[in-house]
Amino acid sequence: MSVKIRLQRHGSKGKPFFHIVVADSRARRDGRFIEKLGIYNPITNPATIELNVDSAVQWLNNGAQPTDTARAILSYKGALYKKHLQGGVAKGAFDEAEAEKRFGAWLESKEAKVLGKVEGLSTAKSDAKKAALEAEAKVNQARIDAAAKAEADAKAAEEAANAPAEEVATEETATEEPTAEAEGTEETQA
Questions:
Q1: How far is CA 17 from CA 40, 53, 65, in A?
Q2: H-helix or E-strand containing 38?
Q3: Name one Pfam family in it (predicted).
């Protein structure tokens, strides 16, 4: 009987959520399993992974074979590195305390990288939000300027339309007055 460390899918369509399990290779993907080692949520950024590293290392030492994705997860969380360090302890290259010290240092550096990524994502999100607000402010200002220009043009056109009408009206009154005077002179002459 071969034992695999693999993912068991849960979650709805388009929103996967996985359990990391140890199962018989003949069992169905989402079927019976021997032990649950942790969870993996690929939807979050960065992906959420909770893993019992000691159990995973014990199963690896017992001969369980991880699938490709499970191997990547085990590597990411340090289970494969811890197994490697235990191999060094077994060969006598260094003692158990040194192995734990090295693993602790590796975990700290890994956590720092993950925190750096989270901070980078949050600053990128805030920068994108600022840029979107600035672009929206520019668009709004352009819209206000265009409306003001259109209003000014309409007012100028209205004044231009009224100005010739006034000039025509003064010309008409000027032409009417002489005719009235001319009529008056004609009446006096008659």
A1: 6, 19, 21
A2: strand 35-41
A3: Ribosomal_S16
CA distance 21 to 35: 6
State in Å, rounded, how far the first CA of the chain is from the last one: 140
Q: How far apart are CA 97 and CA 33, in angstroms?
A: 34
Token readout for 50 is: 């909770």
Phi, psi of 34 (to 5 degrees): -90, -50
Residue found by looking up tokens 């980078």 in the block: 120
- Rounded CA-CA distance 102/51 in Å is 19
Closest residue by Cα to residue 3 from 51, 54, 65 = 65
Digit-coded pLDDT (tens) for 46-95: 899 999 999 999 999 999 999 999 999 999 999 999 999 999 999 988 89
Task: Say if residues 16 and 42 touch (Cβ distance below 8 Å).
Answer: yes
Say which residue the tokens 């006096």 belong to: 188
| pLDDT per residue as tens digits for the range 96-147 | 999 999 999 999 999 999 899 889 888 988 899 999 999 999 999 999 999 9
Rounded to an integer, what distance in angstroms lies between the CA atom of residue 132 and that of residue 178? 69
Q: Is 45 exposed, middle or buried (0-12, 13-18, 19+ CB in 10 A)?
A: exposed
Q: How many CB atoms lie within 10 A of CB 66?
A: 22
